[in-house]
Amino acid sequence: IQDITEKKHSEEILKQSEKRFQTFYNLASEGLCLFTKSFVIVDRNPAFENLFDANHRQVNYLNDILDEGS
Asked: What's the CA gap between 54 and 47, in Å, rounded?
């Protein structure tokens, strides 16, 4: 039998941290985006979309253009 109390506690702390980050990311008034080393946008918050008036299709198009230039 293995005691997994510490593992469960660590997982709960990680979940709480992820939730705080996601809340901050989504509610931030600044435009934020996450991208790969090759500058492919993989996620963006609502403020980013408002700042650049970018919807999902436009971001995918921008990613395609950036990918062609690599």
From this structure: 10
DSSP lists the bridge partners of residue 34 as 43
End-to-end CA distance of the chain: 53
Beta bridge partners of 41: 35
* Cβ-proximal residues to 29 (8 Å cutoff; 6+ apart), any chain: 47
| 40-59 residue pLDDT tens | 888 889 998 888 776 666 76
Q: DSSP per residue over 29-62, as a string?
A: SS--EEE-TT--EEEE-HHHHHHHT--HHHHHHH
Contact 64, 46 (CB under 8 A): no
Rounded to whole angstroms, the Cα distance separating 41 from 25 reads: 15
- What predicted TM-score, i.e. pTM, was given to this entire model? 0.64
